[in-house]
Amino acid sequence: MKTMKFLVMFVALTFSMSAMGQSSVQQKLKENKTALKKEGVSKDAKKEARRLTKEGWTVSPGGLPLEKQVNRLYMFLEQYDDEMNPLYFDGEGRATAENFAAAQIQATELARMNLAGKISSEATGIVDNLVANKMLADDQAASITTTMLENKTIFSQKLGRLQTPLVVTRELKNKNKEVMVRVITKAAAIQEIAKEAIRAELEKEGKELSEELKAYLGKD
Questions:
Q1: How far is CA 214 from CA 57, 153, 196, 206, in A?
Q2: 57 vs 92: CA distance, rounded Å
Q3: What does 121-190 look like in DSSP terms, one character per residue?
Q4: Span 134-155, pLDDT tens digits
Q5: How many angstroms separate the CA atoms of 203 and 196, rounded?
């Protein structure tokens, strides 16, 4: 009889602990969902989304809500390394056409070209640094800088696949569609393309690179 009572108590306790365990798991899931809801969109993203909305911009059919798109863009642009250098660069492009698809293609290409311009700027900065550290002569620097500024189309092709966190559109008075696109790539990719272009230009001129210069430009 005592054995039977013990078994009944044991089973009841087991069910009670199991129920407590399930309740604990459910509570944890509920807390996680609440946390995700609270995480939401940053104040800056909401403010920018309101500004874009006032200017008539809307998202394309099937696209993320405007606040979410702006928030994704800011998440990239607000990342920095230990020395507070940006980890990502962005490019913006706008284009107008009779339909959304055509305008988006043109805007995306312009955004790539805008980003390619930042490769030119990065290359110019690297060249200036090389001259300042006496690793490159002034005449070489002038020639390379000119080439870098003329190579946007080539740089655009070297960018490869890009992140596109923001695509918005608006209808103009003449019924044409205007599209704005923001594209993103890693700063490290920009720097590597710039250094590769400088190496290629120096080698094309037949200049022998010093060991120090090879190390700086990542030359094996």
A1: 48, 26, 11, 14
A2: 15
A3: HHHHHHHHHHHHTTSS-HHHHHHHHHHHHT-HHHHHHHT-S-EEEEEEEEE-TTS-EEEEEEEEEEHHHH
A4: 888 888 888 888 888 888 888 9
A5: 11
What does R_g of the chain's alpha carbons equal in angstroms?
28
Specify the residue for token string 């660069």: 89
Give the three-state DSSP class for 91.
strand
The residue among 199, 172, 42 whose CA lies nearest residue 97 is: 172
Three-state DSSP at 112 gives helix
Angle at 90 (CA atoms; ends 218, 48), nearest 5 degrees? 155
Task: Please count the helices (runs of H) and the strands (runs of E) in the chain.
Answer: 8, 4
Q: How many CB atoms lie within 10 A of CB 125?
A: 12
Spatial distance between the Cα atoms of 47 and 97, rounded to a whole number of angstroms: 28
pLDDT in tens, 59-89: 988 899 999 999 999 999 999 999 999 999 9
Residue 162: what residue type?
Answer: L
pTM for this model (two decimals): 0.76
| Residues 129/200, Cβ–Cβ less than 8 Å | no
